[in-house]
Specification:
heterodimer, A: about 280 residues, alpha+beta, Uridine Diphospho-n-acetylenolpyruvylglucosamine Reductase, domain 2, Uridine Diphospho-n-acetylenolpyruvylglucosamine Reductase, domain 3, Enolase-like, domain 1, 3 domains, five-stranded antiparallel β-sheet, 12 helices, 15 strands, about 35% helix, globular, B: about 170 residues, Ubiquitin-like (UB roll), DNA polymerase, domain 1, 2 domains, 5 helices, 5 strands, about 15% strand, disordered C terminus
Chain lengths: ~280, ~170
């Protein structure tokens, strides 16, 4: 593929205008796009767009209950955010498991989501808080945006609902209510620079001993990061006692459809899903 | 022939202009165009940390960065951390602690160590280990690297005190 134009726009307006013809490959930190293009796993397009200079898309803020994270926010920014530590510690836990210091310093939240790896670390906690993703584009000269729930964003490995003319600009969610407890467990062969063999996120609030607002999510256990609906149904409104936890951990195996690859067999991943779900539920119980 | 782009940036304090293919990584630019070969080419996929440099004071893997993204930025490579008096305090500690075996990972270790020290935070041995998690030493000589960074943190070398497990 011949690259015809390279651009590093400094405003969102400029960026979405460049995207309006499609045919673009976008990078920010470059930590996925660079090795993927070198390995031939991702093709260059006629337009190569460096989104990292766009103003206003890096940062974490709160307005009332709404937390907004710009797509250019780095994983280090997330890891060091007092706001997120206070309101969504599970997102900080996931950032803490993410690659290495050097990668966290440049890899962006938007990039991690748009790369759409089934194992995307940051997707799991964001599934737990029902995050919404703001997608921006340029519609015949006018700025345009739509919002999609993160559970609808991923389509297949490496594929999302993003149109070629769109870019992910913000991640938005309500700060979880008080009493909401969440846990993220990533299983790999070593703590650093590992792609999850399986990751599990579990969250909910216990009121009057009953578990509610149940959220379960899995990474590297299906073609995309997914919510565990069967597991959630089984848990919602129940007491988090050992029997329930065991039943939920078995149900979790019905939520997933893992593949066998270099990191683990499908059988092994199913076993991990059961074990990690059980462990995570004990942690939040 | 890939599209090329002229970029302007600072490297080790010097203003530099270079024309690079837009697909090139910063590592290739640094080594092959700027001839700064202290930055090592290891895995070229972000796993080993041998190519660690500072960009605007922040440590990154040069192999994962698009060279064109260096435009307007301030790069520091291993060649740029010496002081007027010679080796930086951390480099001297790498020497004193014998924190070098084959030496291939050393520039990356020194750059990541320099970054960690620039954060001005108290660090435990565990924090230092976490801090260099993205740097592989295939001679597996981590203990002395950790001792060198810990020594620089406390400004006094702590040779013989490293009792922690590696």
């Amino acid at each position: 593929m011949t690259i015809e134009q390279y651009a590093a726009p400094e405003t969102l307006d400029e960026l979405t205008r460049l995207l309006s013809g499609g045919n673009a490959l976008i990078f920010a930190g470059g930590t996925d796009v660079m090795p993927q293009t070198r390995a031939g796993a991702r093709q260059f397009q006629p337009y190569l767009i460096n989104a990292s200079r766009v103003a206003g898309l890096r940062g974490i803020s709160r307005e009332g209950a709404r937390i907004r994270i710009g797509a250019l926010t780095t994983v280090t920014d997330i890891l060091e955010s007092n706001l997120l530590s206070e309101h969504v510690p599970v997102l900080v836990e996931a950032a803490d498991c993410f690659a290495s210091g050097q990668v966290r310093n440049t890899a962006t939240l938007g990039g991690n989501l748009c790369n759409a790896s089934p194992a995307a670390d940051l997707a799991i906690p964001l599934l737990l808080v029902d995050a919404e993703l703001e997608l921006s584009s340029n519609d015949n000269g006018a700025p345009s945006r739509r919002v999609v729930p993160i559970s609808d964003f991923f389509v297949a490995p490496g594929k999302t609902v993003l149109k070629p003319t769109e870019i992910l600009t913000r991640v938005i969610f309500d700060a979880p209510p008080s009493g909401f407890r969440a846990r993220f467990i990533k299983f790999g062969t070593r703590p650093a620079l590992d792609i999850a063999v399986v990751s599990v996120g579990v969250a909910g609030a216990t009121a009057n001993m009953v578990f509610a607002i149940t959220r379960v999510a899995f990474g590297a256990a299906a073609p995309t990061p997914i919510r565990g609906k069967k597991t959630e149904e089984l848990l919602e409104g129940r007491l988090l006692v050992d029997d329930t936890i065991l039943a939920a951990s078995s149900a979790a195996q019905k939520d997933v459809s893992p593949i066998s690859d270099v990191r683990g067999s499908a059988w092994y991943r199913r076993e991990l899903v059961r074990t990690l779900t059980e462990r995570a539920l004990h942690d939040v119980a | 022939m890939s599209l090329e782009k002229e970029i302007h940036f600072r490297v080790n304090g010097n203003l530099t202009s270079v024309e690079v293919p837009v697909t090139m990584n910063a590592l290739a630019m640094i080594r092959d165009r700027l001839k700064l070969t202290g930055t090592k080419r290891g895995c070229e996929e972000g796993e080993c940390g041998s190519c660690t440099i500072l960009v605007d004071g922040v440590s990154v893997n040069a192999c994962l960065m698009f060279a064109v993204d260096c435009d307007g930025r301030d790069l520091t490579t291993i060649e740029g951390i010496r002081t007027a008096e010679g080796l930086s305090p951390l480099q001297k500690l790498f020497v004193e602690e014998w924190a070098v075996q084959c030496g291939f990972c050393t520039p990356g270790m020194v750059m990541q160590g320099t970054y960690l020290l620039s954060q001005n935070r108290e660090m435990s041995v565990e924090d230092i280990k976490r801090g260099i998690e993205g740097n592989l030493c295939r001679c597996t000589g981590y203990k002395k690297v950790i001792a060198a960074i810990a020594g620089a943190l406390h400004a006094t070398p702590r040779r013989g005190e490293e009792k922690e497990d590696s």
